[in-house]
Amino acid sequence: MNYDIKDKTILVTGANRGIGKAIVESFIEHGATKVYAAVRQLNSVSSLVEQYGLRVVPIPVDLGDPQSIVAAAQTAPDVQIVINNAGVFQAGTPLAENAIAALEFQMKINVYGLLYMAQAFSPILKANGGGVFVQINSVASLKGFPDSATYCASKAAAYSITQALRELLSEQDTLVLSVHPGPIATDMGDAAGMSQVAQPPALVADGIIKALKAGDFHVFPDSIAKQMGDVYKSFAQNVIEVSSS
């Protein structure tokens, strides 16, 4: 199943910077009619509103606040594509004193936030013809790294949920994408110490658009991600993407 974003209404969480901002810009340039910029602080997307006018509609969403997600779903009943991009990163090993607190914090945003987004917006996507649900995961969802183990664990959990959503939402003709960027030039990438190898966030936006046209589930948008994706491809096709129903 492929999907054309032209003339569609989009919602992007974490739209004020990094990958989220690049997605807003790219989707509008590729013909999206309207983008709900879902952010914690509405003034953080003022530059996007200035640039694109009424095509960008700021709405308050905090993935740590389920009520804000429910309210956003009520505010945006015309959404056809939901891109859950917002997330948090906190470095630390499993043996660090704050490991449990770090894992709880990242699970709350990166996993529970995904669940709340899916629960709130799946009925809207169904009512609007099926549409698309995109989850920004990470190559860290496929491999654990000692210095960011709790982050990797949260992304692995999010990837597992995304797999389930793919099968469940296919019943309502909703296309689900799992996006696995490598090091990207964002504030989060800098915090992870990846600035020297990071690549432009526009690659992620372009990768999503290409995957929608091709009907792909997995998206490995940058060069490092593609290397992992090439190795992972056989397992993904023969295990992950095979329906369990």
TrEMBL record:
It is an enzyme of class 1 (oxidoreductase). Belongs to the short-chain dehydrogenases/reductases (SDR) family. GO terms for molecular function: carbonyl reductase (NADPH) activity. This is Short-chain dehydrogenase/reductase SDR. Residues 8-187 form the Ketoreductase domain. InterPro entries: KR_dom, NAD(P)-bd_dom_sf, Sc_DH/Rdtase_CS, SDR_fam. The keyword Ribonucleoprotein does not apply. SUPFAM superfamilies: NAD(P)-binding Rossmann-fold domains. It comes from the Bacteria. The lineage of its organism: Bacteria, Bacillati, Cyanobacteriota, Cyanophyceae, Nostocales. Its EC number is 1.1.1.184. Keywords: Oxidoreductase, Plasmid.
